[in-house]
C-alpha cells in the first residue's frame, strides 16, 4: 500500500474518532443539587492561610552575634528540606508554599558551629496535614529515624563537619544482646562523591579532601545486614559547595583568622572582649619610670685636678692652724693624705656602680587566654549517646 494512502486513512480515522467523542462529551451534564452522588465543592483555596509554628525553648539562650553572624540556635526542618537556622523565638515561623498532604517538622538545639546537642530533650517533632493525609513525609514513630544535619551550604575551609541526629536508635549493646530478637544493630553509611564509609557512633565527624565547587554527601541509616531501614528521611542526599576563597565566619574560625577572645562573642551573649593592648602599655610605662640611671664615673684627668686642688686647700688650712710645724713637712703630709682619700673615693665610686633594675616581681603581666571553654547551657546526657 502506498505510504501516502496509508497516511490519509489514519487521518480520516482520527477525525471520525474525535467527532464521536465530541458528541459524547456534549451529552454529559454537570451534577446538580438533586444528584445522588455529589462532587465536593471547595471554594477559595487560595485564601487558606499558611500554617504558623510557635517554638518554645528552655535552658538555652539563643542569639546571633551581630559582628560574627553566629550563635547558639535551633535547626528547623520542614519534611526533608535543608534546615533553617532559628536565632529567636519571639515571632512564629510561617510555612509558605506547602503542598496539600502530610508534612513533618523536626527541630533540635545546635551549637554556634552547627553541631547538634544530643541530650534528651534537645529534639522535638510533629506531623500535620494540609487538607488530607498522605504517605509522604510521615515517619513511623516506632522505627529509628535519621535527620541529616551537616554539611550544608557553602564552605571555605577544611575540615568540614558531618553531623546528624538519631531518634529511636537502639543502643549497640542492646541490639547485640539477643541475636534472635527483632532489635537489629545499626550503622550510618556515608557516601561522599561516590566513596562511602560506615559510622557506628553518634558523634560528629570532620572530613577533608573535598573538590572545589560542588560535592554531594549522602547519609543512610542501615541495619546490621547493610540494608536501609525503611522510614521517612532515613536516606538523604545534599549538594554542598567548597570555595577556599569564601571568608564567612566559620571558615575564618577553621583557618584561625579569628582570635579565641573574639570567638567568645558567639557563645556568650552581650560579651565584651578585654582590651589587652592598653594593659601592656601601662606596664611598659611603669617599668620605664622605675629605671635608675647609674652615676657617671669621673675620668682620670678629672681625678688629677681634684687631687691638686685638695692638696693646695689642705696645705693652707694646716699652715694657719699649726704654726710650729714646718710648711714643707705639713704640705707633704697633707698631699699624701689627700691622695689616699682621693684613691678611696675613686674606689668607692667604682664599687657603687648601679645597673638598671629588673622589672619588679610583684608586677602581674597580663597575657591573652590560651583557650576558651565553650559553655553549653544544655548539659549533655552521656548515657543517651549511642
Question: How would you characterize this protein structure?
Answer:
This protein is α+β, with helices and mostly antiparallel strands. It has a domain at 48-270 and 378-384: Immunoglobulin-like. Helix content is 26%, strand content 21%. The protein has seven helices and 14 strands. It has helices at residues 3-27, 172-177, 249-254, 260-263, 276-289, 300-321, 327-351, and strands at residues 52-53, 73-78, 84-86, 93-94, 101-110, 123-130, 145-150, 154-155, 160-167, 186-192, 195-199, 205-207, 213-223, 235-242. Strands 8-14-13-10-11 form a five-stranded mixed beta sheet, with no helix packed on it. A hairpin with a 5-residue loop joins strand 2 (73-78) and strand 3 (84-86). The longest helix is centred in the N-terminal third of the chain and has 25 residues, at 3-27. The radius of gyration is 45 Å and the shape is globular. It starts with a helix and ends in a 35-residue tail after the last helix. Mean pLDDT is 74; it is low at 22-35, 285-289, 306-311 and 315-386.
Level-1 CATH class name of the domain at 48-270 and 378-384: Mainly Beta
For this entry, what is the oligomeric state of its chains?
single chain
Query: Tally of extended strands?
Result: 14
CATH superfamily of the domain at 48-270 and 378-384: Immunoglobulins
The proportion of strand residues reads: 15-25%
The end-to-end distance, rounded to whole angstroms, is 76 Å
Shape: globular
CATH topology term of the domain at 48-270 and 378-384:
Immunoglobulin-like
Which CATH architecture of the domain at 48-270 and 378-384 would you pick?
Sandwich
pLDDT < 50 runs, ≥5 residues: 22-35, 285-289, 306-311, 315-386
Helicity range: 25-40%
Order of helices and strands: HEEEEEEEEEHEEEEEHHHHH
Secondary structural class:
alpha+beta
Average pLDDT confidence is 74
- How is the largest sheet built, in terms of strand order? 8-14-13-10-11
Question: Over the alpha carbons, how many angstroms does the gyration radius reach?
Answer: 45 Å
| Biggest sheet character | 5 strands, mixed
Number of helices: 7
Amino acid at each position: 500500500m502506498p505510504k501516502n494512502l496509508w497516511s490519509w486513512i489514519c487521518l480520516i480515522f482520527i477525525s471520525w474518532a474525535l467527532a464521536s467523542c465530541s458528541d459524547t462529551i456534549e451529552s454529559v451534564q454537570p451534577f446538580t443539587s438533586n444528584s445522588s452522588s455529589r462532587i465536593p465543592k471547595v471554594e477559595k483555596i487560595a485564601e487558606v492561610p499558611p500554617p504558623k509554628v510557635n517554638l518554645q525553648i528552655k535552658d538555652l539562650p539563643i542569639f546571633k552575634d551581630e559582628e560574627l553572624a553566629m550563635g547558639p540556635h535551633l535547626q528547623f526542618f520542614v519534611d526533608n528540606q535543608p534546615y533553617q537556622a532559628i536565632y529567636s523565638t519571639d515571632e512564629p515561623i510561617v510555612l509558605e508554599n506547602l503542598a496539600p498532604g502530610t508534612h513533618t517538622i523536626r527541630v533540635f538545639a545546635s551549637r554556634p558551629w552547627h553541631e547538634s546537642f544530643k541530650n534528651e530533650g534537645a529534639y522535638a517533632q510533629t506531623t500535620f496535614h494540609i487538607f488530607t493525609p498522605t504517605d509522604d513525609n510521615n515517619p513511623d514513630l516506632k522505627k529509628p529515624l535519621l535527620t541529616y544535619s551537616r554539611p550544608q551550604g557553602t564552605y571555605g575551609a577544611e575540615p568540614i563537619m558531618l553531623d546528624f541526629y538519631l531518634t529511636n536508635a537502639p543502643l549497640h549493646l542492646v541490639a547485640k544482646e539477643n541475636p534472635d530478637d527483632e532489635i537489629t544493630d545499626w550503622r550510618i553509611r556515608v557516601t561522599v562523591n561516590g566513596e562511602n564509609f560506615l559510622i557506628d557512633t553518634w558523634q560528629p565527624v570532620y572530613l577533608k579532601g573535598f573538590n572545589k565547587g560542588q560535592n554531594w554527601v549522602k547519609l543512610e541509616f542501615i541495619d546490621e545486614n547493610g540494608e536501609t531501614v525503611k522510614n521517612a528521611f532515613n536516606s538523604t542526599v545534599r549538594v554542598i559547595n567548597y570555595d577556599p576563597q569564601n571568608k564567612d565566619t566559620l571558615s575564618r574560625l577553621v583557618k584561625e583568622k579569628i582570635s579565641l577572645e573574639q570567638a567568645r562573642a558567639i557563645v556568650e551573649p552581650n560579651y565584651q572582649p578585654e582590651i589587652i593592648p592598653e594593659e601592656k602599655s601601662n606596664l611598659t610605662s611603669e617599668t620605664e619610670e622605675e629605671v635608675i640611671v647609674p652615676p657617671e664615673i669621673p675620668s682620670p684627668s678629672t681625678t688629677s685636678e681634684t687631687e691638686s686642688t685638695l692638696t693646695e686647700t689642705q696645705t693652707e688650712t694646716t699652715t694657719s692652724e699649726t704654726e710650729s710645724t714646718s710648711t714643707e713637712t705639713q704640705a707633704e703630709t697633707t698631699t699624701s693624705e689627700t691622695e689616699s682619700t682621693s684613691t678611696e673615693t675613686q674606689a668607692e665610686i667604682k664599687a657603687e656602680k648601679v645597673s638598671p633594675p629588673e622589672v619588679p616581681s610583684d608586677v602581674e603581666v597580663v597575657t591573652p587566654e590560651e583557650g576558651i571553654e565553650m559553655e553549653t547551657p544544655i548539659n549533655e546526657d552521656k548515657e543517651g549517646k549511642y
